[in-house]
């Protein structure tokens, strides 16, 4: 049982709360910690710590801030085993997957080390006689981040390293289901020399989130989670004139063309649909097959592989798929499968009754595969967030694109083909934010930004990478003239136009 879960404010671990709630190990179904839900007073404390820390941190030279990030990156590498064990304990994903998550998070820290280069601004000399003009990028102040359970270490690392490198102070509200890895990571950041009040953590649910958004100190809100909550948070922030980026849910389609290499597609779909038990916002949950013979062949190849999936606790390196995050979420996935059967989808592999010897109380499911799914079915329309892959049959690439474009979500998608023209046509016309061509999980590297279209993202800028530097700073444009022989005498009432001087 982890007794050390608390709020981290000014580097101090606090346990003050209105209530506590249990955290479960999803592989065993047993409680492994108690989470304090912050009282209003604790949230006030975090706001005040972040506010106080901000001015001197904002005035710290960016290159000095970067030194902290370099040291932090080294600590992450040194302590990666411990971090991944904490991820697996509370989330359930297999250790190799936890390592992959952390590696992608570390890439964001490496990117943040180079942010001084991106804060340089833009300069124009002599925009008028003896007049120079420039734009610079100043920090916002206190910013907050609210993160989901499915990448407990990586998603916070999408946010706060960029935010603090831009000179802001940060309050993180992590998922209540698996907070321990991120708490450990924040302690490492403090150990690396980050001033303690610059990065604080509070735990809680809707009340804590609303108090943070509404606080006068808070200038911007980053959110990643499900779409209804993303939309509500975006609206609440926008109504108060606050900058917000809110990344939401997904339904990611993979188009399989008749010329695709089916062995490659099968392997790619196994990882993309069932990795992390389907609990990734970029998970492929729909295979769109172009031509019936493609669907038949793909299902023939996928079926034995899904039946043979090694399901069990993430701590056992031989397992390929761990448990679902909670008992409730497991039941929700089963309900979606039941409803799809009722609505006429053809169940090819049924993962509902999977049990793991010695882990009978764990929240395990096997992989599920459906054929003949149609756009009216609930299992097609909703984000299931579990190990379920459905096949939708179409006859042409144009029909596949139309299907994807009509879906309310637009996070990720991919096409499998050997035809460059088809790949290019697809990426030009599909209304989705991140596109793979023979790449099933096209998660952009840290120096490109991440974000979906349609109801997968509310806001203008994407997460991490160059967009994050724009999100966490505001532009100031300065025009400067020093008295000199070129200055015109007298008052000028016309709108300034330097070209006529
Ligand atoms: P969630 O929306 O339930 O929770 C996300 C965060 O919001 C948590 O910190 C939670 O405590 C908080 N929260 C919960 N209810 C709230 C409310 N009513 N008001 C304010 N805050 C609230 O999401 P989850 O189950 O933790 O994560 C899974 C979801 O996140 C999926 O929909 C997945 O697609 C999405 N996700 C999206 C991306 C992306 O980049 N688009 C990345 C990861 C996860």
From TrEMBL:
Keyword tags: NAD, Oxidoreductase
Entry EC number(s): 1.2.1.27
InterPro entries tied to this protein: Ald_DH/histidinol_DH, Ald_DH_C, Ald_DH_CS_CYS, Ald_DH_N, Aldehyde_DH_dom, MeMal-semiAld_DH
Pfam families named among the record's database cross-references: Aldedh
Molecular function terms from GO: oxidoreductase activity
Domain of life of the source: Bacteria
Organism: Vibrio olivae
CDD domains xref list: ALDH_F6_MMSDH
Residues spanning the membrane: none
Protein name: methylmalonate-semialdehyde dehydrogenase (CoA acylating)
Domain Aldehyde dehydrogenase: 19-478
